């Protein structure tokens, strides 16, 4: 770097931070948080308390209310706005973790999920068009430790050992209102001792040049792991309205730093270290993943040329070729796929056309038949009508005949009368 | 014990008129009812055994609760506050015996602890060592019983009561809880207990209890007091009341604090003191009364008359008669 030079006048680039700030505010922020722990440790309640929202409410109960047979990984997104700043918060929950009788490998779905998010990001970074790069990598993992008061369980140790190099792990003591202050101290010391013993690398708060900040950081470090209590119910205590849990012997206040470390967690997570968590995820965990993935590629690339370039069946893996060659391959495969799809579509089209033609023919025949049928009906009716008319004519002529006969009879009788009247009948 | 005292007092002042099954009425006071007093004297002299087993994952306050129940340091951890004991890799069975005395009555209390239960990553079949232990104790008793020359008083190491600790998740029973209780409710009296209940508010506690009771019913788990063993209506109504309250939500503590001028056992937090024996705070007092003051003898009887007899019948049926005893004595079974 060059030497530091003093300025003779005011240039104005001191407003850079403001420009960055304005740009970021417009863009909005993203943050992905993962919560892991056995069911019943208050994870959902804590999330609700941290972000003062009802992410899990009675209409949409949290995963712990639904019984799970295997570990699932579930995402929920919520958009929070405060002071003109938008935060797209994604909470990744892991119901079923540690709940079965046999919990071997219950961490595997979680590891797979984290890796898949890294892979998505890696792929979108390697794309030609990088305009849209959504960052869905997990920035922070809150691990909930049950408040046994003794130490870490074998499951806790296994999980943290496997995840500390993939994500920022922040261990928390859940339901801390179970422990008295002395028990809490002992428990924390025991946990930190075991964490060091097993060489688990939990998230470290960075040291800064600022004295004031360093003092705060040191205070936080002394209190690790943080013992938290979650609640969103508001209770009146000494005239003040506070969030807490009401017991027959008193009220445990969530935001009282004598009662639990909730405020420290919230401040640390949201107010001071959110950006740092994202940076560490990007610079350390993601880079680790990326270098591991790409190293595997170049190593395999050499071998592969010897083996006459075998195609990998899964288009997504990078195994087998260098990135450029892989892109070529991808393009070729894409074209081939397109062609195949086209052919298939044509086939389908022809088939459909044939079907339609057949159908039309059928309906035509059907119509013809009906036409015939109708004609027949009509003729039958016609004949019937003819019959009727003939009968009618017959009747008529009969009737006319009768009438004439009657007429004749009448005339005959009349003439008789006339004759009678005219002359005496001899 | 108090009931018997009262009877003793009344005995001397009334003529008891009994209608025997033969229909004869007594013409004067004979003194048959002093048998209760005689039994009491005998019991005081010989003392009695009680074996209680505590099962549950580590960190639920099992040892603390047992200490609180018997108001003395009788648990496995009584030797010292060994917080940093490593969780064992397999379920172990550790039993500690003490003789405690109260009002002239001696009790040999054995507490059987099961460290490592439910603590591993893979907890398949973690109930097997426990089942094996219970059956071993039955076997020991059976062997003694079928001996030709029996000891005057067979030492009773059978497990009379098993307190199963349910973690206060607030949601429902875990699969492990259901599996364990299903398999063991037929060989031992299981009393489910909600541990560390100071985690839950009163409403959460009620909801959780209801859900647990429903799940126990759904899975056909008969916990003590079992409905099928209620002798008469009085028993049934008493036991029904108790069954409504189970599982008891308890808090254990062996530290004393000053509350309203009294010294009470409790836990001191920044927002208040939880009194262990206060029925508004937790149900420890009810559990203690139930376990020790009213149903202690019944627990032993059910274990002897029902669980042990079931085991014995099964053993004798399966083998078509007992095998000759393979221990030091060379006697054959005379069944």
Automatic annotation (TrEMBL), chain A:
<dbReference type="GO" id="GO:0030496">
    <property type="term" value="C:midbody"/>
</dbReference>
<protein>
    <recommendedName>
        <fullName>Septin</fullName>
    </recommendedName>
</protein>
<dbReference type="GO" id="GO:0005819">
    <property type="term" value="C:spindle"/>
</dbReference>
<comment type="similarity">
    <text>Belongs to the TRAFAC class TrmE-Era-EngA-EngB-Septin-like GTPase superfamily. Septin GTPase family.</text>
</comment>
<dbReference type="InterPro" id="IPR027417">
    <property type="entry name" value="P-loop_NTPase"/>
</dbReference>
<feature type="domain" description="Septin-type G">
    <location>
        <begin position="27"/>
        <end position="296"/>
    </location>
</feature>
<feature type="coiled-coil region">
    <location>
        <begin position="324"/>
        <end position="422"/>
    </location>
</feature>
<dbReference type="InterPro" id="IPR016491">
    <property type="entry name" value="Septin"/>
</dbReference>
<keyword id="KW-0206">Cytoskeleton</keyword>
<keyword id="KW-0132">Cell division</keyword>
<keyword id="KW-0547">Nucleotide-binding</keyword>
<dbReference type="GO" id="GO:0000776">
    <property type="term" value="C:kinetochore"/>
</dbReference>
<keyword id="KW-0963">Cytoplasm</keyword>
<keyword id="KW-0175">Coiled coil</keyword>
<dbReference type="GO" id="GO:0005930">
    <property type="term" value="C:axoneme"/>
</dbReference>
<keyword id="KW-0969">Cilium</keyword>
<keyword id="KW-0966">Cell projection</keyword>
<dbReference type="GO" id="GO:0031105">
    <property type="term" value="C:septin complex"/>
</dbReference>
<keyword id="KW-0131">Cell cycle</keyword>
<dbReference type="GO" id="GO:0032154">
    <property type="term" value="C:cleavage furrow"/>
</dbReference>
<keyword id="KW-0995">Kinetochore</keyword>
<dbReference type="GO" id="GO:0051301">
    <property type="term" value="P:cell division"/>
</dbReference>
TrEMBL record, chain B:
<dbReference type="InterPro" id="IPR016491">
    <property type="entry name" value="Septin"/>
</dbReference>
<dbReference type="GO" id="GO:0005737">
    <property type="term" value="C:cytoplasm"/>
</dbReference>
<dbReference type="InterPro" id="IPR027417">
    <property type="entry name" value="P-loop_NTPase"/>
</dbReference>
<keyword id="KW-0963">Cytoplasm</keyword>
<dbReference type="InterPro" id="IPR030379">
    <property type="entry name" value="G_SEPTIN_dom"/>
</dbReference>
<dbReference type="Pfam" id="PF00735">
    <property type="entry name" value="Septin"/>
</dbReference>
<dbReference type="InterPro" id="IPR008114">
    <property type="entry name" value="Septin3"/>
</dbReference>
<keyword id="KW-0547">Nucleotide-binding</keyword>
<comment type="similarity">
    <text>Belongs to the TRAFAC class TrmE-Era-EngA-EngB-Septin-like GTPase superfamily. Septin GTPase family.</text>
</comment>
<feature type="domain" description="Septin-type G">
    <location>
        <begin position="46"/>
        <end position="318"/>
    </location>
</feature>
<dbReference type="GO" id="GO:0005525">
    <property type="term" value="F:GTP binding"/>
</dbReference>
<protein>
    <recommendedName>
        <fullName>Neuronal-specific septin-3</fullName>
    </recommendedName>
</protein>
<keyword id="KW-0342">GTP-binding</keyword>
């Amino acid at each position: 770097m060059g030497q530091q030079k003093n300025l003779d006048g005011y240039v104005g680039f001191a407003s850079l931070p403001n420009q960055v700030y304005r740009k970021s505010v417009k863009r909005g922020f993203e943050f992905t948080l993962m919560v892991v722990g056995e069911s019943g440790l208050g994870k959902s309640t804590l999330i609700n308390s941290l972000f003062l929202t009802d992410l899990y409410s009675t209409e949409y109960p949290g995963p712990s209310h639904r019984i799970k047979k295997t570990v699932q990984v579930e995402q929920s997104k919520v958009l929070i706005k405060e002071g003109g700043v938008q935060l797209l918060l994604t909470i990744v929950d892991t119901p079923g973790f540690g709940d079965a009788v046999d919990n071997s490998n219950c961490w595997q779905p979680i590891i797979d999920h984290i890796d898949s998010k890294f892979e998505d990001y890696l792929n979108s970074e390697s794309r030609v068009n990088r305009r849209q790069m959504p960052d869905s990598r997990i920035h922070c993992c809150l691990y909930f430790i049950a408040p046994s008061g003794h130490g870490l369980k074998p499951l806790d140790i296994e999980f943290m050992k496997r995840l500390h190099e993939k994500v920022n792990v922040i261990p928390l003591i859940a339901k801390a209102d179970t422990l008295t202050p002395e028990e809490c101290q002992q428990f924390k010391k025991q946990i930190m001792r075991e964490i060091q013993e097993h060489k688990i690398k939990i998230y470290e708060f960075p040291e800064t040049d600022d004295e004031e900040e360093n003092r705060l950081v040191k205070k936080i470090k002394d209190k690790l792991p943080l013992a938290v209590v979650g609640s969103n119910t508001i209770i009146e205590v000494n005239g003040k309205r506070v969030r807490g849990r009401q017991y027959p012997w008193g009220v445990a206040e969530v935001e009282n730093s004598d009662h639990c470390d909730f405020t420290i967690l919230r401040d640390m997570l949201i107010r001071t270290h959110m950006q740092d968590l994202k940076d560490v995820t990007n610079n350390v965990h993601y880079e680790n993943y990326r270098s591991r993935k790409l190293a595997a590629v170049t190593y395999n690339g050499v071998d592969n040329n010897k083996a006459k370039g075998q195609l990998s069946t899964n288009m997504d893996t990078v195994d087998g070729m260098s990135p450029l060659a892989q892109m070529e391959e991808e393009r070729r495969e894409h074209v081939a796929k397109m062609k195949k799809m086209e052919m298939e579509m044509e086939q389908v089209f022809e088939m459909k056309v044939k079907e339609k033609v057949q159908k039309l023919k059928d309906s035509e025949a059907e119509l013809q038949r009906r036409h015939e049928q109708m004609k027949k009906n009509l003729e039958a009716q016609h004949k019937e009508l003819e019959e009727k008319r003939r009968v009618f004519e017959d009747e008529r002529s009969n009737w006319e005949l009768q009438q004439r006969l009657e007429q004749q009879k009448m005339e005959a009788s009349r003439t008789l009368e006339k004759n009678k009247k005219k002359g005496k009948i001899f | 014990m108090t009931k018997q005292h009262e009877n003793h007092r009344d005995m001397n002042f009334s003529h008891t008129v009994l209608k025997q099954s033969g229909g004869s009425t007594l013409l004067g006071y004979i003194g048959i009812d002093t048998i209760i007093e005689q039994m009491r004297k005998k019991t005081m002299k010989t003392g009695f055994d009680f074996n209680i087993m505590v099962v549950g994952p580590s960190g639920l306050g099992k040892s603390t609760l047992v200490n609180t129940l018997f108001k003395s340091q009788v648990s496995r951890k009584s030797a010292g506050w060994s917080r940093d004991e490593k969780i064992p890799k397999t379920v172990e069975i550790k039993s500690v015996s003490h003789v405690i005395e109260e009002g002239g009555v001696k009790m040999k209390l054995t507490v059987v602890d099961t460290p490592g239960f439910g603590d591993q990553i893979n907890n398949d079949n973690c109930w097997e060592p426990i089942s094996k232990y219970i059956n071993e104790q039955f076997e020991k008793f059976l062997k003694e019983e079928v001996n030709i020359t029996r000891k005057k008083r067979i030492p009773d190491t059978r497990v009379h009561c098993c307190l199963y600790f349910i973690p206060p998740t607030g949601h429902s029973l875990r699969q492990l809880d259901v599996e364990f209780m299903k398999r063991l409710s037929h060989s031992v009296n299981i009393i489910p207990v909600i541990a560390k209940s100071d985690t839950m508010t009163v409403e959460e506690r009620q909801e959780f209890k209801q859900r647990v009771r429903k799940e126990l019913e759904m899975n056909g788990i008969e916990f003590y007091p079992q409905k099928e063993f209620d002798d008469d209506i009085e028993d049934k109504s008493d036991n029904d009341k108790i069954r409504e309250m189970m599982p008891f939500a308890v808090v254990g503590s062996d530290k004393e604090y000053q509350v309203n001028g009294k010294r009470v056992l409790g836990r001191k937090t920044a927002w208040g003191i939880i009194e262990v024996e206060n029925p508004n705070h937790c149900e420890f007092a009810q559990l203690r009364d139930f376990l020790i003051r009213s149903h202690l003898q019944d627990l032993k009887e059910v274990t002897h008359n029902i669980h042990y007899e079931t085991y014995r019948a099964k053993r004798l049926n399966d083998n078509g008669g007992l095998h000759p005893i393979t221990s030091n004595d060379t006697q054959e079974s005379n069944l």
